[in-house]
Design goal:
About 45% of the residues lie in helices and about 15% in strands. By secondary structure, it is of the alpha/beta class. It has an 8-stranded parallel beta sheet with strand order 7-6-5-4-3-2-1-8. Helix 5 links the parallel strand 5 and strand 6. Helix 1 packs parallel to helix 9, helix 5 packs parallel to helix 6 and helix 7 runs parallel beside helix 9.
């Protein structure tokens, strides 16, 4: 599996976009990723993975979920190998809108790693983040669930605390903080305070021009990373 480059941006349309609309935004994200060099993880519905993968070159196509089963019986479940075959390079797990038990999450992370999918695991608190960190996902999204979609980002204290605690457990895990991220300034703050990545759903989709917002956010990632090194 290739090394995970940071800092990075996640563009997560959830199920608001699908088909041609999802592809349109993915193409814009692809252009931004090429122009800025910022790694962009773009999530999409299962049915759109192959469509988006075949029309893009620079974004990291990301499945929104998968199940820990192996090829064979498992009617109606999401087979990891099918995601990989369709072109997914990463998978999102345990989002607040599709939570898993720690036991299931552990098995699913293992299956993803078996077939070479990068794992973004979500946690709704510092405590849950610390528990999940021990399962060794590649990336860990720590976001207070009550801030999702509110336009209000987590405070500086939360951001610094979660980064410190996760890094104390495993320095290899890339850390995302993203709840409530709406503007390029929000993105700048997350990266400047030490996060490896951040991203948005409504902050992008509800922007006057979502394509421009992705560009602005990617540029903010670069500025923050540069300023953080000073």
């Amino acid at each position: 599996m290739s090394e995970i480059k940071a800092p990075f941006l996640t563009v997560n349309p959830k199920s608001y976009l699908y088909g041609d609309k999802s592809l349109e935004l993915a193409l814009a994200a692809d252009k931004t990723a090429e122009a800025t060099g910022v790694p962009i993880y773009f999530t999409c519905t299962f049915a759109d993975i192959r469509l988006i993968k075949e029309h893009t070159k620079h974004i990291i196509v990301t499945a929104q979920h998968m199940d820990p089963l192996v090829p064979g019986r498992g009617m109606g479940h999401v087979l990891p190998e099918s995601l990989k075959c369709a072109g997914a390079e990463a998978v999102f797990l345990n989002h607040a809108e599709n939570p898993l038990t720690l036991a299931v999450l552990n098995n699913t992370i293992k299956r993803a790693k078996e077939i070479g999918l990068k794992v973004i695991a979500a946690a709704d608190s510092v405590a849950e983040g610390c528990a999940i960190a021990k399962l060794k996902p590649d990336m860990l999204l720590c976001e207070p669930t009550d801030l999702i979609g509110t336009g209000q980002i987590a405070g500086d204290g939360y951001i610094k605390d979660v980064i410190a605690q996760i890094r104390a457990i495993d320095q290899e895990i890339k850390i995302l903080v993203a709840s409530g991220v709406t503007t390029a300034d929000d993105v700048y703050k997350m990266i400047y305070l030490g996060a490896d990545g951040t991203g948005a759903t409504s902050g992008i989709l509800n922007a006057p021009d979502p394509k421009v917002r992705i560009q602005e956010m990617a540029e903010a990632v670069l500025r923050a990373a540069k300023d953080r090194e000073k």
